[in-house]
């Protein structure tokens, strides 16, 4: 199953206890993010991982309905996770003082911490990530026995455990730092918006805008999944939320089951490419590269638009080929009415984007966005108890001024507003229902964050291995040596690495691993820093569409009632732009609005951007026509071949390939124009 915890908290006393632990986890994370609780970063990370273990072990056991023996073992493991966190907190200063010279008990606790992280990852995500991390840990322990250049000088067992289980290089490294700050907050932000009706708002707006067009139901899937990507941290989660509505809708209007599942999988995974949240990778990338968040988003904007434009084009052509019309306008919701009814849900998103692009830190923006979401949800409920007219207007103006003043006077003002609204809602029936919704959102946010947080902790072992042994340099030198002969082969090798790793690993840990290994190597080959990281990020996402694992496609399979492999093959065709854009950006960084590249040096930055975007649009258009075999009429095999060759030559970025590709494009357009003239005159 794609997410074993998706079913929620089980019934019974243990399930209720875990529910309230999850609420406490979310409250703790909000309190530390807003600096109501100030702790050293190391302690905050340790408590974060402790909460993850406390929830993960018993929750997965209860969800899978294991017997009393395994349930008891799970609770013992959960208490072990709490003990490790408590040890890190209690011994924080002494551990700093004896860093590099651990005591015997430090080693025992460190080994316990590692065992618990490996075990939690195994039960939550299966064996793939633990086996990979275990191989890296084994390399630390025994790598000195390997032949050169794979060997290292050898490290003492105590040194390895100290490096991995303490400090900020191993399981408490940058991935857990980002998980305990940005990722958790944005997952919580998305949980509140979803509970408040954001999915319905996005779906109604999408239906109203494009539902009546040719292939309208599939275009609704693309648009609503793209919008969900702005608040959701998981492409697979998008599949099982928006897909429950869009896939049956597409099938009902004539789309093949495999194609419907492929559309939803492609669009949902693409949500992670869509600013502002980008599946939380944007924040990890900014932290890793030491650049502003805005720089990462700037690089992502054009590729994200091209990705979703490509998906739109593919479903339009498939609808034309199959003669699928849109929905009746009379049966569609009004997008204006949907926005009018759910306008208050858009303000937190707008505020989040404004803060992120105004130079505020993602942590501050996420905390403020979450506070504003709470103010609006609780305020909307409280306002229902007021009479219509000027009193409501005054209430909203006052609440808005109070929330806005938090930018000047601190988040404490927003916290006071939330506390006041909680008290207000506690004394009305509708208000109490809203408070229950908020409480459930806190619990659901924490539950959703468990697999991501555990994956980040385990990936820290891989990062720790590379910082201790320098293993990344060995792999990087190999890629560079290949790149000296052919940059294209280096890129293909990197792409395959990302896809193979991504077959069993979620996007975030996949990005962290591959960017640590391949990012510096691509930089050494002259690829701009952000472009190299976006390259591995793209293929980490596309791994969830690629056979044989294709996680997103198999998540869509039971909804579409179709074989996951068939869905995967359709998804690859629809997501062709995702495979093309990273390669084009490496050869022409202007596609990601980055300086560099021969074209920008020759003609200037702005003309280079315009040219490469136009070239990408043409190649995507040609690819769609070639794959679907329809462009206003069925295409002959030789016409499809012509379109495909033209598309590939425009992508290749080799001497004369652009000229050949554009010439073939003109030939293809001339052929289609003459064919149309012939049909009209007949």
UniProtKB/TrEMBL annotation:
Highest taxon of source: Bacteria
Official protein name in the record: TRAP transporter permease
Transmembrane segments: 17-37, 43-62, 69-87, 107-124, 170-193, 297-317, 338-357, 363-386, 393-424, 449-475, 487-505, 571-593, 605-631, 643-670
Acyltransferase among keywords: no
InterPro entries: DctM, TRAP_DctM-Dct_fused
Pfam families named in the record: DctM
Coiled coil stretches, renumbered: none
Keyword annotations from UniProtKB, A to Z: Cell inner membrane, Cell membrane, Membrane, Transmembrane, Transmembrane helix, Transport
The TRAP C4-dicarboxylate transport system permease DctM subunit domain, residue ranges: 113-594
Function comment: Part of the tripartite ATP-independent periplasmic (TRAP) transport system.
Membrane topology: Multi-pass membrane protein
Location(s) in or outside the cell: Cell inner membrane
Primary location: membrane
